[in-house]
Design goal:
9 helices; two-stranded parallel sheet
Length: 207
């Protein structure tokens, strides 16, 4: 049932894929018995407590008040990619924390977008190509020059910079990147069972 629903979601327009549901379907695949409705409600509750419905307000709320933070000690733990675990533990990796921020913002009427910069993942403000947030480092605000400097630092200037690195990433491409991250984790751990689960989900996506 979960995989069928996932395939349905991935078949819609790339930008219309519901990130919260898609991400939680990945979680339910890896954690059988997980109650997705419970974690959608947890997102609703988080958003309901956000005092300032702006991009900067959401960032302050999640990363200063609620203390969401990047998991530096166990970065490659597959649970960092599970949205339910991110909510429960207040830790995650750049892309899962970005999905959290985007979905909390959406619930309070703020449109944020994923920015799939190579080597890292950021959040942008829809309609404003000059402002970015880095959820992994406490929701730090970046301008384009600072985002480029981060990229060059992370890649040790071995990868050419392209302004397109800061273009918005479609919701479907965000989900694909989440699956690719998990594929790499499970392949590195020789976890054939979970790798197979992720590859079956990946096969349901048109691209």
């Amino acid at each position: 049932m979960g995989r069928d629903r996932f395939a349905e979601l991935m078949a819609v327009d790339a930008g219309a894929v519901p990130l919260d549901e898609a991400a939680l379907l990945i979680s339910t695949e890896l954690q059988p018995g997980l109650d997705m409705i419970e974690w959608l409600a947890a997102l609703d509750m988080l958003a309901g407590e956000c005092p300032t419905p702006t991009a900067f307000g959401v960032a302050r709320y999640l990363f200063d008040d609620e203390h969401f933070v990047g998991n530096r000690t166990a970065y490659y733990d597959w649970r960092n990619s599970c949205l339910d675990r991110v909510i429960a533990t207040r830790t995650g990796i750049p892309i899962s924390l970005s999905v959290l921020m985007i979905e909390v913002a959406r619930r309070v009427g703020v449109k944020l977008v994923g920015v799939g910069m190579p080597a890292h993942f950021l959040v942008g403000v829809a309609g404003d190509p000059e402002v970015f947030f880095d959820p992994f480092t406490g929701g730090r605000t970046l301008d384009r020059a600072q985002a480029r400097a981060m990229f060059e630092d992370l890649t040790h200037r071995q990868v050419p910079w392209d302004e397109a690195h800061l273009d918005p990433t479609s919701n479907r491409d965000i989900v694909i990147r989440m699956l690719n991250n998990l594929k790499a984790v499970f392949a590195g751990r020789s976890d054939a069972v979970r790798l197979g689960m992720i590859m079956q989900m990946r096969a349901a996506i048109p691209e």
